[in-house]
Amino acid sequence: MMWMKCTISIVPATSTLHSPDVAVHADMREDFLKTLRCIILSRILEEKLGSLYRAGGRIVGGVYLGRGQEAFSAAAGNNLRYGKDIYGPLIRDQAGRIAYGEPLLDAMRTYLGVITGPMRGRDGNIHRGRPREGCMAMISHLGSLLSVVAGALFARRLRGTLGDTVGATSIGDGGTSTGAFHEGLNMAAVEKLPLVISVANNQFAYSTPTSRQYACEDLVDRARGYGIEGYSVDGTDLLACVATFRTAFARARAGHGPQMVVGKLLRLGGHGEHDDASYIPDSARHKHEARDCIEVAKKQAIDLGWITEAEIRTWEEESRREVDAAQAIASKEPTPDPYRETWHALSTSELVEGQHG
Amino acid sequence: MSITYLEAIREAQYEALRSDPNVFLYGQDISTFGGAFKATKNLSREFPGRVFDSPISEDAMIGMAVGAAIEGARPIIEMQFADFSSVGFNQIVNQAATLYWRTNTPCPITIRMPSGGTAGSGPFHSQSMESIYAHYPGIVILTPATVEDAYWMLLESVKLNDPVIFCEHKFLYYHLKSEGFGEALPIGKARIARPGRDATVVAYSAMLHEALKSAEELQMDGYQVEVVDLRSVKPMDTDTILASVSRTGRLLAVGESFPWGGVTAEIIARVSSEAFHMLDAPPMRLNSKDTPIPYHPNLWKTHRPTTSSITAALRTLLRY
């Protein structure tokens, strides 16, 4: 039975042990297939973005991809309702964004730097967001988004509009070293907010290996220190990721405070497309966490009889058409005009200073 | 009824909480304890569930305020001392200040910063941060010098749809008193605190009062010194400054922050480039010394501009 191959390890960071019984989760089929569809689309979109970047001239700015992290990212995003829940995606969360419901055009328009996108040429690519709709727009300073997501949840609770909404944000192994991450997570724990924090331990922060990043045995050990519930999961195993995040989100929504899910995986590429990742040793490329999560997921689904190879090929073709259609629309749209830009950094326009000097 | 500058700040927060359910207060020791300076005294009792003690996490406090503001709340964040805002610097200048520009989402947060020196407070409880924050786009920087401005400008800050750094001067907390709150003056406009014809001093916050005393002293010698209260560092009311300098032909800019760059340098730059022909003397500026702020009162009172150093500078300016 394929179920037995799932490796779900829930670490009891607090005194309570939460162990989802995989066998009873036959209803995972729907979530699993939905997420698989998202990660296939995400990979195809990112391959397109990568090739546009390498061709030069079309993509504005850098391209930072989530190759190898799609399963972990999408399994989290799949638990969020667009327009209802709060999401603070980070740099390798294209798959999570798709699962969350961000329109593909938002991505394509931002990468192509056209004014129809959410950032209107003022900021780019992975920084995109629509905060008023619940999708926060990350800044480059790692860890600093955590408290923003926490604040949105805090305000909802204060105003009585929290209901069953939940917040989620991501970090990598490197980002866990920042003061902002610590402050934000500690505050979220003190305020007992319904927040799920995904820690994608992809082994390298840009080029720095985890041995130069932290000294604890496992990042999930930190959950105990914050007094929150923590989970370890094989980030290359979509089935395990779907099951683990389902539990974590349910616990967060049920009022059990922040949930930290640490996924072990490997970034299957450079930090960005400019980076050849030559610092990743061959030995790392042959470890379990170097498995391609998409290939693992496809096999899982086929072995379980949930989908056929032909159906997967159909999905892939549909995804290519979706990506091409988005590109076709966005590439015809206008880029920003500096002479039409207001150059106002304040929303209160009467307080904007004129130019001096 | 005599009201202090500190009481005005408490009253403004009371009124903000009373008039808008979206307002809440978040800061260290501000709940039942009422804050290190008692600027939130009794507010947690008067507004249960709206005044929160925060962990000692300036970064997370500001980030949290930004997230709350996105959701429609209007947080007032108390930095226990302006000095500690350096820990939240990134969230202020990169998160809060860029949000509207990047995403078209207003960021109505007010960050209260107990600022400036008092005797014996030393290097880390005395700083004036307005020059640092004014450098960044996307933030309004207010520096009230009067009880009236402390009250009205704080209320106005909470209503603004942009991040506000509210620099309230600790030296004025208890000493400065008024009979009432008077009337609100518009944000972003300077005020002629004392009219004169011989020289213009542009000052703000606690330095306004040192400058006014200097003007008083120099009146004995027959000089009429005009004193402009900047009120708002950013936006800076350049028109009022230029109009004053066009009348007097002489300019001294006084600020308590460190001398390299900053508010006084900006004033000099604007006047020099836009009203060079109006000047009868080289414009002057006076700031604190270029060292950390000293602990001992003997050193501290020489480190920052005072009535006597302002008077000395003005004599040089007037003699030119």
In round numbers, the mean pLDDT of chain B is 97
Tell me the count of domains of chain B.
2
Number of domains of chain A: 1
Beta fraction of the residues of chain B? 15-25%
Low-confidence stretches of chain A: 1-9, 11-22
Q: What overall geometry of chain A do the principal axes of the alpha carbons give?
A: globular
**CATH topology category name of the largest domain in chain B:** Rossmann fold
The CATH superfamily of chain A appears as Thiamin diphosphate (ThDP)-binding fold, Pyr/PP domains
- Per DSSP E runs of 2 or more residues, the count of β-strands of chain B stands at 14
The SSE string of chain A, one letter per element, is EHHEHHHEHEEEHEHEHHH
Structural class of chain B: alpha/beta
Average pLDDT taken over every residue of chain A = 92
| Biggest sheet details of chain A | 6 strands, mixed
Largest sheet of chain B: 7 strands, mixed
In brief:
The complex is a heterodimer of chains A (357) and B (320). Chain A is α/β, with parallel strands linked by helices.
Question: Can you walk me through this structure?
Answer:
By secondary structure, chain A is α/β, with parallel strands linked by helices. Chain A is built from 11 helices and 8 strands. Chain A has one domain: 3-Layer(aba) Sandwich (Rossmann fold), CATH 3.40.50. In chain A, the strands form 2 sheets. Chain A has a 6-stranded mixed beta sheet with strand order 1-7-8-4-3-2, sandwiched between helices. In chain A, strand 5 (204-205) and strand 6 form a beta hairpin. In chain A, helix 1 (28-55) crosses helix 3 and helix 2 runs parallel beside helix 3 (94-100). The longest helix of chain A is centred in the first third of the chain and has 28 residues, at 28-55. Chain A is globular and about 60 Å long. The termini of chain A are far apart. In chain A, 52% of the residues are buried. Chain B has 2 domains: 3-178, 3-Layer(aba) Sandwich (Rossmann fold), CATH 3.40.50.970; 191-319, Rossmann fold (3-Layer(aba) Sandwich), CATH 3.40.50.920. Chain B has 12 helices and 14 strands. In chain B, helix 8 links the parallel strand 10 and strand 11. The radius of gyration of chain B is 19 Å and the shape is globular. Chain B starts with a strand and ends with a helix. The chains are: A alpha/beta (357), B alpha/beta (320). The interface between A and B is large, with 50 and 57 residues.
